[in-house]
Amino acid sequence: MKTSVHAVVRMAQKAKRSSVQLSMLATSAKNDALQVMSRALLDRKAYLIAQNRKDLAAARKRNYAKALVERLTLNDKGIEEMAQCLLDTANLKDPVGEVLGVFTRPNGLVIEKVRVPFGVIGIIYESRPNVTSDCIGLCLKSGNAVILKGGKEAFYSNKAISSVLKDALKVTQIPAEAVQLVSSTDRRAVNVLLCQDQYVDLIVPRGGEDLIRFVAEHSSIPVVKHYKGICHTYVSDKADMAMARKICYNAKVQRPGVCNAMETMLVHQGIAERFLPQMIEEFKKAGVEIRGCPRTRRIIKTGIKKATEKDWSTEYLDLILSVKIVGGLQEAIEHINTYGSRHSDAIVTEDMKEGEQFLRAVDSACLYVNASTRFTDGYQFGFGAEIGISTDKLHARGPMALEELTTYKYLVHGKGQIRQ
Amino acid sequence: MKTSVHAVVRMAQKAKRSSVQLSMLATSAKNDALQVMSRALLDRKAYLIAQNRKDLAAARKRNYAKALVERLTLNDKGIEEMAQCLLDTANLKDPVGEVLGVFTRPNGLVIEKVRVPFGVIGIIYESRPNVTSDCIGLCLKSGNAVILKGGKEAFYSNKAISSVLKDALKVTQIPAEAVQLVSSTDRRAVNVLLCQDQYVDLIVPRGGEDLIRFVAEHSSIPVVKHYKGICHTYVSDKADMAMARKICYNAKVQRPGVCNAMETMLVHQGIAERFLPQMIEEFKKAGVEIRGCPRTRRIIKTGIKKATEKDWSTEYLDLILSVKIVGGLQEAIEHINTYGSRHSDAIVTEDMKEGEQFLRAVDSACLYVNASTRFTDGYQFGFGAEIGISTDKLHARGPMALEELTTYKYLVHGKGQIRQ
User: Fold this and answer.
1) What distance in Å separates residue A93's CA from the closest CA in chain B?
2) Can you tell me the distance from the alpha carbon of A53 to that of A73, in angstroms, rounded to the nearest whole number?
3) Helix (H) or strand (E) holding B53
4) Is A407–B418 a contact, with Cβ atoms under 8 angstroms apart?
5) Mapping DSSP to helix (H, G, I), strand (E, B) and coil, where does residue B26 land?
6) Which of A360, A366, A417 sits opposite B371 (nearest CB)?
7) Overall pTM > 0.80
8) Contacts with B412 from chain A: Cβ below 8 Å
9) How many CA atoms, within 13 angstroms, populate the side-chain half-sphere of residue A276?
10) Which of A105, A414, A412, A411 minimizes the C-alpha distance to B350?
11) Which of A79, A293, A374, B134 would give a disulfide with B419, using CB separation of 3.0 to 4.6 Å?
12) What is the pLDDT of residues B342-387, one digit of tens each?
């Protein structure tokens, strides 16, 4: 099961070579290929499910948590969704070749700024096998070759999905070498991949914070990081109380295990006594554990824990919420900029001037006035898909989809101009 | 002269704090400040020149090369140019607040993608003192606080320029804390700066390859790298010979010490015998040392050296040129993608189809048909200024100016929407 160092280097070389050809394919050729790949997944359903069962058996033997086994499971419906995602990706607008600007200089040079693929993208991810198929689709559509390194828990599933898709590519114009899977379960394979800066242009790690830190620390290739989401909702004293309750409840309860769920609720001191009792009652009914600041605990005297300093910077990914009463907008902004993770933060207020101040002053990828932070998502934003949600500020910020898998270059058309 | 670890951390904290205020300033307030700063440089000319003399005296004592001493020298004209650059920067379009897109979702959410400053930008650079002033201007105009770390050779000059500009800020709306100079000559200060990812959003190293590699390896903050320029010109068999000679001569000779100068000339085998003798004669007259491939040396039998494998990946920054005869477009493209540095490359051809193929297939920031690579430059591209030329593909590619000193965020306006 070990992939040797040389095997990873060869994969990177093959991917690079194929990427030049891929970068020049017409949109229709890429879309045709995605359709062929989509059909192949449906045709090979039985094989995919059989291979997935091997991973599930291993997971049970290793006593994996139920939630993890669920995420690993590939059934009819899951495969149909993967196939549909490839079709959806085929229908998305091709970002490659988009002219981002044209300017003619006084000396007659015509400079075009044009969107181009990165070249080769490495994706390092954990658990869910559909990521394999989704990422292959997004990378190929954006004209990039892709090298995948999945987790050992989905070893057989990832191998099966990528081999079905690579097989399918043989009857298309996309070179099969444009898809490479590092199927080694040896972590050294990741280290080798992260050093192939000669061949690989971008690394996207998807998974837990440890994985992402490991990748960021060891990569000589640029990494777009998708760190945790410590998302806040600030309920202003100018908020519509009923709306605030609805938004906060949704942001915490609807799906607590994801990065755009709320982890800390900030409440203006002027409305805390009116707002908190009913709100916290609703949270408690939903099974949410509350960890409050001292002022919160003076209003809600029973059944809430004391929030420690660590709570303000913790991503619970669970039915736990920290609550803090603040003096006003300025304190809310400072709290978020200090403890947040630059992901998604919301204000609930009827005062649009206050809303604008919040939008401008909070340093996060996605900022909301009067809506739930749960909308931070490529599909919800209308990007059709997403490769992840970047918490970096460089290159891509927030939901990262096809456009964010491209870079640009300048094409300069002259008539013999030389520099004076 | 040592800046303690704590001093650098405090600088980063102050810069961060000021950046929030700076990010919200109106364009007019920033422009007014740049004008005040520009006047201050002119008013304090005598002081700046006196401080610069201390650096020049030290440089002579250390027996620095003449070219380096020249680059270090600050005279009346140099200070006037710095002052003018600040005025020019004031006249550039403010990128902050530009709406990059607005989309209304089916649920009524209105999502705006808006250009915002990064926050705090660290610039680590060598020798020329005007970089201090130019970078302060560009960073402040784009709404960013800036932390500067210049080289020890310009210690007094950099300190004088930044103190004059910080003084000038006191009567403006830009907080003086938005400009920080690490005046330590201790390299550990750089290491400390590179770890302040909590406060600093972006690092731009400007200088030799060693400096850039050091920064890239030690920084926990994202770095936009400005590596070397191994620029090529490919003379096709479909080239206008006279144009090709003019372009190649300009790209090599006009200013050989800069990154957009040509280092390798590729010539189609079909025209080599006609093209090379006169071309090489011209180069020799200009004092250019030629290092040729074996086929070149069969055509030009005397006075040219043998090119080694290492020559193809060497940035001479000098009157030296490597010359290779290639079989055609494909070989030229492969040579450039293998040995080039993704900076600037040109083709000379009258066949526009061939030109288009070259533009699409070469993986460099700036690609030219029938023009000199010497045009890769922020001013020449019409950006008004430049902070450098990025050889990275992530975030900024090619000339990096005001727009490239910004990132974006999504502002989402709701009416109480929650996720279903």
Assistant:
1) 15
2) 8
3) helix B45-61
4) no
5) coil
6) A417
7) yes
8) 366-369, 371, 375
9) 28
10) A414
11) A374
12) 999 999 999 999 999 999 999 999 999 999 999 999 989 988 878 9
Q: Which helix (H) or strand (E) holds B55?
A: helix B45-61
- At A69-112, the pLDDT tens digits run 888 999 999 999 999 999 999 999 999 999 999 999 999 999 99
CA A86, CA A70: separation in Å to the nearest integer? 22
Q: Which residue(s) pair with B148 in the sheet?
A: B123, B181
Q: Which residue of chain B has the CA closest to A249?
A: B418
Joined together, the tokens standing for residue B251 give: 């790209």
CA A51 to chain centre: 26
The CATH number of the structural domain formed by B5-225+396-413 is 3.40.605.10
Residues of A in contact with B118 (CB under 8 A): 393
Alpha helices in B194-343 (DSSP H): 209-218, 241-253, 272-285, 294-299, 329-339
- Tell me if chain B has a CB within 8 Å of the CB of A20: yes
Pick the residue from chain B with its C-alpha nearest to A111.
B381
As a residue count, chain B comes to 420
Per-residue pLDDT tens for B97-139?
A: 999 999 999 999 999 999 999 999 999 998 789 999 999 999 9
At B35, the amino acid letter reads Q
In what side-by-side order are the strands of the sheet with B366-371?
A: A99-104, A110-117, A406-417, B366-371, B344-348, B231-235, B262-268, B320-326, B289-292, B305-306
CA-CA-CA-CA dihedral for B112, B116, B119, B120, to nearest 10 = 150
ipTM of the complex: 0.93
Of B392, B397, B414, the CB nearest to A409: B397
Query: Which residues in chain A have their CB less than 8 angstroms from residue B381's CB?
Result: 103, 105, 111, 410
The 3-class SS string of chain A reads CCCCHHHHHHHHHHHHHHHHHHHCCCHHHHHHHHHHHHHHHHHCHHHHHHHHHHHHHHHHHCCCCHHHHHHHCCCHHHHHHHHHHHHHHHHCCCCCCCEEEEEECCCCCEEEEEEEECCEEEEEECCCCHHHHHHHHHHHHCCCEEEEECCHHHHHHHHHHHHHHHHHHCCCCCCHHHEEECCCCCHHHHHHHCCCCCCCCEEEEECCHHHHHHHHHHCCCCECCCCCCCEEEEECCCCCHHHHHHHHHHHHHCCCCCCCCEEEEEEECCCHHHHHHHHHHHHHHCCCEEEECHHHHHHCCCCCEECCHHHHHCCCCCCEEEEEEECCHHHHHHHHHHHCCCCEEEEECCCHHHHHHHHHHCCCCEEEEEECHHHCCCCCCCCCCCCEEECCCCCCCEEECCHHHEEEEEEEEEEEECCC
Nearest to B149 by CA among B168, B176, B131: B131
Q: What is the pLDDT of residues A250-266, one digit of tens each?
A: 999 999 988 999 999 99
Show residues of chain A in contact with B371, CB under 8 Å.
109, 412-418
Label residue A416 left, alpha or beta by phi (over 0 means left) and psi (-120 to 50 means alpha). left
What mean pLDDT is predicted for residues B183-200? 89
| A356 has pLDDT over 50 | yes
Fold of A231-375: Aldehyde Dehydrogenase; Chain A, domain 2 (3.40.309)
pLDDT surpasses 50 at B1? no
Per-domain boundaries in chain A:
5-225+396-413, 231-375
Confidence grade of residue A1 (pLDDT, cut at 50, 70, 90): very low
> Sign of dihedral through CA atoms B418, A402, A387, B117?
negative
How long a stretch of residues is chain A? 420
CB atoms within 10 A of CB A174: 25
Amino acid at B223: V
